[in-house]
Design brief:
By secondary structure, the protein is mainly beta. Bound molecules: calcium ion (4 copies). One calcium ion binds next to loops.
């Protein structure tokens, strides 16, 4: 919401708080005006991520036996507002204890894991993938969590980390409260060939920089944002690492912003892909130096202040749009062209100019599926709507990201075209036995989380 770090508190027994940082040491609660106060629900786990990759932090949280929320951040008249895009399946109430947002298969798309506690009857855990679409709300797809389903699991806490250092995130669940159950450690079984990068910002004293914001600029897929979270679950917290799954893309540069406003940008060499990058807190003399040239990647360019910013293609290339769609609209990391059909306020023409549809950021309105063009051919940009609309593939095999791989229809004809929504391959988790080091690490995190959560709520420093 501002350049300084705000705080979101997902509360039980009362409305949530969204403390807007006024930058002078004071905060003002903007939860109600931003639409995230949710006064009648009981939050039990919250995570922050940029699900639609527009550079604005979104909020996902679980309500105890209440509807789960996925709030996209919009801005209207300079003020942040949030809009719940949770699908009926996603929002289905459950006895939730932890909400985890992570890219388990490193395909660029974030997964959301709900850790539920089976305390009166079975309550399976749930896993969703939130698929970014270029010009609309992300698509929420339910996945099969495999062994991590744990229908009888008394899940109390959960964390995500890379235990074995292979670049694939692992999931650890603790159980208890009403019955003793052992820890579970899971790893995903897909995405091993995808690129990844783990970024670890440090404070000036060398500690993990909780509250830091990390933006990774990539060669093809724009900017990816992570928050080093200080909260996230009931009595637990996530690893203080910004983990990026990149699919086949590569990083070009990384930017870290600390909660005090200090910022560092630097290029990422191709030899640094698939590794852990430590980013120390900048020394004063570092910030005085002339900014080094940055490789910002597609859709972004380096500004005078030395940082990567969204390229405004509509200004830089005034004739970028074709004659039948002459109106250029700048978007984060890209742009789009639309017809000049006139629509009333709050509406804009759809892609082919045949109808007016509600604009993003306005009140819910119709579901966005109708306003997207049908896929014609798989383009190079895997993160856009092409993937979201990739259809079910009867008679084909499909890869982990949902693309049809082998075609068995008549030659030249793709039997996987059109038809029903995407059928993604399930992201199945398999059990791996925990080592004593893992158990210690988990205990440390859960203890730290307990201290932080002693006021019966979950909180996370956040950036808007
Ligand atoms: Ca966003
Ligand atoms: Ca993923
Ligand atoms: Ca791993
Ligand atoms: Ca742009």
């Amino acid at each position: 919401m501002s350049s300084a770090s705000d705080i979101f508190c997902d509360n039980e027994n009362g409305p949530n708080f969204l403390f807007h940082n006024r930058g002078d040491g004071t905060f003002v609660d903007a939860a109600a005006s931003a639409g995230v106060d949710d006064p009648h629900q009981h939050g039990r786990g919250v995570a922050l991520a940029d699900f639609n990759r527009d550079g604005k932090v979104d909020i996902v949280y679980g309500n105890w036996n209440g509807p789960h929320r996925l709030y996209l951040q919009m801005s209207a008249h300079g003020k942040a507002r949030f809009r719940d895009i949770a699908s009926p399946k996603f929002s289905m109430p459950s006895p939730v204890r932890t909400v985890i947002t992570a890219d388990f298969d490193n395909d660029q798309e974030l997964e959301i894991f709900f850790n539920n506690i089976a305390y009166r009857s079975s309550s399976a855990n749930r896993l969703f993938r939130v698929i970014r679409r270029e010009h609309g709300d992300p698509l929420i797809e339910e996945l099969n969590p495999g062994d991590a389903l744990e229908p009888e699991g008394r899940g109390t806490g959960g964390v995500v980390t890379d235990f074995d250092g292979d670049g694939m995130l692992d999931l650890i669940l603790s159980h208890g409260e009403s019955m003793a159950q052992p820890l579970s450690v899971f790893r995903g079984n897909q995405g091993f060939n995808n690129n990844w990068l783990r970024v670890v910002p440090r404070t000036r004293f060398g500690a993990f920089a909780r509250g830091a914001k990390v933006v990774l600029y990539t060669k093809k897929s724009g900017a990816h944002l992570r928050i080093i979270d200080g909260g996230s679950g009931y009595l637990c917290e996530m690893e203080p690492v910004a983990h990026f799954g990149l699919g086949k893309d590569e990083a070009s540069s990384v930017e870290v912003t600390w909660p005090d406003g200090k910022m560092v940008s630097r290029n990422v060499a191709s030899g640094e892909m698939n590794s852990v990058l430590e980013i120390p807190y900048p020394r004063d003399e570092d910030t005085l130096q002339n900014p080094a040239p940055l490789e910002c990647g597609q859709g972004f360019s380096q500004q005078e202040n030395g940082h990567c910013m969204d390229t405004n293609e509509c200004i830089q290339f005034p004739f970028v749009c074709p004659r039948d769609k002459p109106v250029c609209v700048n978007t984060y990391g890209s742009y789009r062209c639309r017809t000049n059909k006139r629509c009333s306020r709050g509406y804009e023409p759809n892609e082919d100019g045949t109808a007016c549809v509600g604009t993003l950021g306005q009140s819910p309105g119709p579901r966005p599926t109708a306003r997207f063009p049908r896929p014609q051919a798989a383009g190079p940009r895997a993160g856009g709507w092409l993937r979201a609309l990739t259809p079910a593939c009867p008679g084909c095999s499909c890869c982990c990201s949902g693309f049809c791989l082998s075609l068995r229809g008549p030659s030249g004809l793709n039997p996987c075209s059109l038809q029903s929504p995407t059928q993604f391959c399930p992201l199945t988790m398999t059990v791996i036995p925990p080592s004593s080091t893992m158990v210690w690490q988990l205990l440390m995190w859960t203890m730290m989380g307990t201290l932080r959560s002693s006021w019966r709520g979950t909180m996370a420093p956040t950036w808007f």
